[in-house]
Amino acid sequence: MTTFSLWINGKAVSTANTFDVINPADKSVVAACPQASEQDLENAVAAAKEAFPAWAEKPWQERSDLMLKLADAVEANMVELSELLTKEQGKPQNGFADMGAGFETGGTLAWIRATAGLTLPVETIQEGDDLTIEVHRKPLGVVGSITPWNYPLLIGIWHIIPAMLAGNTVVMKPSSLTPLTTLRFAELANEILPAGVLNVVSGDGGIGRMITAHEDISKIVFTGSTPTGRHIMKSAAGNLKRLTLELGGNDAAIVLDDVDVASAVGKIFATAFINNGQTCAALKRLYVQDGVYDAICEGLTEIANSVITGNGMNPDSDFGPLQNPDQLQLVMDLAADAKERGARFLTGGEQTNTNGYYYPITLVADIKDGARLVDEEQFGPILPIIRFSDVEEAIVHANNSPNGLGGSVWSQDIERAREIASRLECGSVWINHHAVIQPHAPFGGIKQSGFGVEFSEAGLKEFTSIQTLHVYP
Ligand code: NAD
Fold it and tell me: CB of 175 closer than 6 A to ligand 1?
């Protein structure tokens, strides 16, 4: 079994205590993971603090070149990283529509390279004989990154590449359920970066809490659940840390009567069940107008009946297990509530393989707002399909959620779809698609889905503060 270490000040650090990382496909132990102590965290923060001035002073281009070298290192180790991802996270190597582990490592590469090309030039907002005013961007210092278990490598990259490119140093904590790919990436990265620029400490929420309260950390970038986001906001108040919080979503899609059903069903299926539904901006509530309700249900059922859920290392598997037993239990509880309310199960609804945390692709029709499956984020392979007649009513239902991450409108009338999209309360809206993200398009939530954005120049700016320079000649 491969040995994993913390990465502090450019060195591998072993720990007295470890915890097991479980393969959700068969409940076997993938590896023993180091459990960081409070002292390890102190050492990591001290290393990041010490490395900060020299890193911040490096020319932007030098930091950008080092980021590109990280992408090369990921590329050279793609197979190993993809297999490790499948073993700790459960997602298939390729999977449905090629959106498995290869998609995550490939996306990691693409994201690093695109982000490395971003710059934050000085903005001159006034220039004249009497006065020149310029806006400069400065790094913040030490950034704390805390990541979840659904896309451990990709989400980690989304946090740390813009942070480091902008001149910050990092202390990162991956989810204790999926820490291994991140630790392996840290090993590769520490062969390239100066010591102390990227430190990784693995452990549970306790280490996360220490990071969010630490006086020498200037900013937290967090992706995870809304309740944890609330804890972080409180804990970060001590030294007024900057925050980017990417939290849960319960994205609604509104499908209108005039949709092109044949082209829509494949996209709806893929974006609802991407990563087995364990995706923040997956399509999670499907509102379909009367005229196409049956056709959409049939189209989705046909695809669902053709896919295979199994061990992600098996090339035939379209979908893997859920990542952990708590998430599986939540999905089963939501299904039980839907059954009690008389909803119609088009597929799935029963766990058939208990060797791992498997649950079949489950489509639930004739269900309404008020059922837990509609009102709560399922974060798993079960989709409620809600019928509507009146579009105004569908908009009210779509917005009747504490979350506001993404949403979508499906119609051949693009002008009408635009008008409806503009009324949805969410940070990203798609017309005739869902959950598709790009490195040059800002992405973030509103309401209880958090605040701040990632990606693009707008995301990069979140790792800087403004210094306004007024020059009187
Ligand atoms: P989680 O909140 O349970 O855990 C996320 C991370 O926070 C883990 O590393 C965990 O150890 C750490 N943590 C736990 N308690 C903490 C505390 N008190 N202080 C600091 N850190 C703490 O989330 P999860 O279950 O890993 O992820 C699933 C959730 O993440 C879903 O709700 C999903 O929608 C959300 N998510 C959002 C996005 C987005 O971009 N908006 C992306 C992916 C996932």
Answer: yes
